Amino acid sequence: MWLCSTPGPTEHSLVHQSPRALIQEMPVIRMTPIERHKLKLTGTVEVPIYVTSSRRNSMGEGYVTSLHLPSNQHNSFWILEGVCLILNTD
């Protein structure tokens, strides 16, 4: 999995760094199913996961799901940065 439009997370949190690196490899992520009402979403940002960096294929599809990642910045900051996760680097 690759992090697109922002550098990779450090110390288990997304951080803003140099704009030169547009795609960074994500560390291994352990996904554990949990009931929605037990989620603790404070201090996280919802990041969409796409199949490719174009964010869609010729059929207009490409969105897989979204993932909540820890962040010290407000959600709007990462939305304006265009942060997303991609499964293939094209």
Overview of this protein structure:
This protein is mainly β and 90 residues long. The protein has one domain. It is built from one helix and five strands. The protein has one helix at 75-81, and strands at residues 2-4, 23-25, 44-50, 63-70, 84-86. The chain has a five-stranded mixed sheet, with no helix packed on it. The longest helix has 7 residues, at 75-81. The model has no long low-confidence stretch (mean pLDDT 78).
Output the keywords.
90 residues; mainly beta; five-stranded mixed sheet; 5 strands; Dynein_C_barrel
Overall tally of domains? 1
> Tell me about the biggest sheet?
5 strands, mixed
- On the 0 to 100 scale, the average pLDDT is 78
State the helix count: 1
Helix-strand sequence: EEEEHE
Computed Rg: 13 Å
Helix content: under 10%
Strand order of the largest sheet: 2-1-5-3-4
The assembly state of the depicted protein chains is single chain
Poorly predicted spans: none
- Global morphology: globular
Number of strands: 5
Structural class: mainly beta
Give the SSE map.
Elements: E1 2-4, E2 23-25, E3 44-50, E4 63-70, H1 75-81, E5 84-86
Parallel strand pairs: 3-5
Antiparallel strand pairs: 1-2, 1-5, 3-4
